[in-house]
Structures are given as structure tokens and as C-alpha cells.
Amino acid sequence: MVSPNKGQLALGPGILREAPLGSLEPSDLSTPWDPAWNTMGYTKDGSKISYELDTGAVEVAEEIDPIHIAINSRKLKVAFALMQLTATNLRTAWNGGTITAGTGIVIYEPPEPGEEVRRMLGFESSDGTERWVFRECLQGGNVELERKRGSDAANIGNEFMLAKPAPTIRPFAVILAAPARA
């Protein structure tokens, strides 16, 4: 039986980061993130990590219950809405593109179909007791920018799908503080 322990609660939205594929990953909770990892700024409602299994029952005529539950596929996602409308955040949301700086302006142009760039994503909790590294991500959701009146600021919605980056590398890793989060 697990004893109640408020030190194991995960609170706050944390900090989101992005980096090119293959960037150096953190290996602990105290070493600063490699400079390749850029912070992404404010979010509308924090971030959401989803893990979904599509399963199927293996049924035989001789048994009333399934004799096995098979896994057909797995969907891993990281979703968030970025509040800071920058060319860098647009490039992340649209999976690449070009940013050109001029005098007093920045121009962003999205990638051509087929030229999308996959990224790594990172998350660090506000209390420093957890870090997540998502190793190969492609933004596969709808990107919608709503403009409303008053204090409801525009935001850039993102829903990144995770892929297995290589046969021997898993899609993500989580670093947790021990013994508190063991």
C-alpha cells in the first residue's frame, strides 16, 4: 500500500524546451540543459502528455474470455498552446520553415510539404524534481491562432506526435528525484 506523501505531488506548468534532433540530453536534475535546448516561453494552460494504447482481444471459440490482449499500436503525444507569438515558436508549430531578419522586422515562411523538420522536446518541473525528454517529435495537430478582444491573448496550439527515433532508442525518458519520486 502506498502511503500519502505530498512531496510526491507534481505541481505547476514547468518549463518547455525544444532542440534539434540528436541534441545532448540531460542525464540528471542539476546539470544545466545543453545550449541547443531553447525555452519556449509561456503556455495557455501548461502542457499535457498522453499515452494511448490501441488494443484488441484475441478470442477463441473454446473460451468465454479473451485468451490474450494484443497491442495494435501506441500513440504518444505532447500538447500545449504557446502564448508568445514569435517567429521561433511559429517555426516549431509548423515543423520548420525559414526565419529572415531585416531592419526592425522578422519574416517567417512555413516549410514546403515534405520538408518538415522533426524536433526534440523537453520539460522541467517548476520544483526541479522531474525532467522529461521526448526524442523525436512532429507537430501533427491543428495550428490555430485565435484573435479575440480583451485579455484573451492569441496562442499557438501544438500537438506533437512522438516517434521511436532508432531501433534501440525509446521515444522518451523521464528523470525523477529519488527517493521522493521513486
UniProtKB/TrEMBL annotation:
One matching Pfam family is Phage_TTP_17
The record's section on InterPro entries has: Bxb1_TTP-like
Species name:
Micromonospora inyonensis
The name of this protein is Uncharacterized protein
User: Out of the domains of life, which is the source?
Assistant: Bacteria
